[in-house]
Design a protein that fits this description.
- By secondary structure, the chain is α+β, with helices and mostly antiparallel strands.
- It is built from 5 helices and 8 strands, in the order ββαααβββαβαββ.
- The protein starts with about 25 loop residues before the first strand and ends with a strand.
- Bound molecules: coenzyme A.
- Coenzyme A binds near residues 58, 118, 119, 129 and 160.
Length: about 200
């Protein structure tokens, strides 16, 4: 089984969040975008847009860089085998050009989920990520036993922080020296939205 390494959040083990239950695809109120399941023919656009240092530098190291076609194939075939997929494509004009996903916690944190997202750079600044995050968050709270959805952006990721705040997430904490990225120790912020 290939490592679930190709997207920031690639499945939550005991997740009860199912793509089909989520009623995908959802039309987003921006730029003809949709949130929908990843499909095999998204491979070229996935690789094209994921293979970007400006995307990868803001994500966990399990999102590889460079992002090779083999990474995309491995991700899509891994995802196709998941019984409870929790990552979805952000699609613009029919092509999967970004991803958004939930990783549901376990045990006492089973009603809490971490959200992660990325978008191809040509589509930045149109409100697409904000719309996707708001839609996924609202839909997940409506349909599932989640009381909290949270995110942990790097403190220097101004665009993602803005996305979170526009989507109604509040800053709960400043995690000092909590991550290492590209050999540098960095801070992260903790953001959450509640049911
Ligand atoms: C973060 C990301 C998903 C945002 O996608 P997007 O569709 O461009 O986001 P939106 O258009 O909905 O909103 C972006 C907001 O950030 C703002 N912004 C962008 N760059 C900024 C910067 N350097 N400083 C301050 N604000 C910035 C934009 O102006 C916009 O805010 P506005 O609507 O008030 O003008 C995209 O940049 C991305 O994929 N980045 C790499 C991966 C990543 O960071 N993922 C999140 C990990 S926590």
């Amino acid at each position: 089984m290939p490592p679930p390494a190709q997207l920031p959040y690639a499945g939550g083990g005991t997740s009860r969040v199912r793509a089909e239950e989520m009623g995908l695809p959802w039309a987003l109120p921006v730029a003809g975008a949709l949130v929908r399941p990843w499909a095999p023919d998204d491979l070229p656009s996935l690789v094209q847009h994921a293979n970007n240092p400006n995307v990868a530098r803001q994500l966990r190291d399990r999102f590889p860089h460079p992002y090779e076609p083999a990474h995309g194939r491995g991700f899509l075939s891994w995802l196709a085998r998941q019984q409870t997929p929790t990552v979805w494509a952000i699609s613009v004009e029919g092509r999967g050009v970004g991803g958004i996903g939930l990783e549901v916690g376990q045990d006492v944190e089973r009603e809490s989920a971490e959200v992660g997202y990325w978008l191809g750079e040509p589509f930045w600044g149109r409100g697409i990520a904000t719309a996707a995050l708001d839609a996924v968050t609202a839909r997940a709270f409506r349909l599932f036993d989640l009381s909290r959805i949270f995110a942990v952006p790097f403190a220097g990721n101004a665009a993602s922080i803005r996305v979170l705040e526009k989507a109604g997430y509040v800053r709960e904490g400043h995690l000092h020296r909590s991550a290492i990225k590209d050999g540098v120790i960095v801070d992260q912020y903790l953001y959450a939205r509640y049911r």
